[in-house]
Model the fold of this input.
Amino acid sequence: MKKILITGGAGFVGSHLVDRLVKDKFKVTVIDNLSSGNINNLSKSFKKIDFIKIDISNYKKLDKSLKNKKFDYCVHLAALADIVPSINYPEDYFKANVEGTFNILNILKKQKISKIVYAASSSCYGFPNKFPTDENCMLNPQYPYALTKRLGEELVEHWGHIYKIPFISLRFFNIYGPRSRTSGTYGAVLGVFLAQKLAKKPFTVVGNGKQTRDFTYVDDIIEAICSALKSNVENQIFNVGSGNTYSINYLTKLIGGKKIYIPKRPGEPDCTYADISKIKKILKWKPKFSLEKGISEVINNISYWKDAPLWSPKTIKLATKDWFKYLS
Done:
């Protein structure tokens, strides 16, 4: 039975991965500080895993908690993920996403681990000049979240080459699906829209809604992670996307409801669109969910967002005030 450490395992992607790996007969250890993760996300698998509540930015406690544990693999998902608050709290993002990654790597350096899979972010590309965007495109992070995720990726690459920790870094594009974050911060567009739909309020569309995003369903993300874990491939970076890009206006049409428009935000691209030819060729992975199919699954689980914060143009303006101040 292979032993695997999953950081951020009570979160959106992490909890889906835990369920899958428990089903696949892995011996799973989850660490999560529950700052944005939810222990209820692990209800299906909790009795079959080892759960440790800990903050990865605290190396002393982390080292003590994992001292007598040995792992074959690690999937490093733990991070502060909402982009807008990163403008106001860059030190928190650096501590979680950079120092936390450094600490995990130092723990793994003591073990003969077979592979670490790092959850990187497509936000590292900033404003791409090529679509679809491949892994060799210039990196140009536009805000602290994007920068800290890229710095984490650089650490993983460096530790891989210097300390011989085999790695795969997966640059995820706009993940959505059941269990996505319902935190109190202004975050992912789909969660905002779903809470508005439940409250029978109009969708707050940023800009003219013609900007497009490569929305990638969480089940496809899980398959990509599992493909990375189980392959013999190492020391590679891969984009993980849907193979398409969709406008925000089309997203609102699929969800169904009225919409209003709010000012376009600086620092965000007009398009995200992953070139996934590399991962398809090397890892033999390809997405199975169209946006239409994925949104149908989300709508079937819409009650999950009943306690999510309800955002209005006024509260969004207040939450993004510093974003406009620093990125305009």
User: Anything to note?
Assistant: The CA atoms of residues 120 and 261 lie 30 Å apart. The two ends are 52 Å apart (CA to CA). The mean pLDDT is 96.
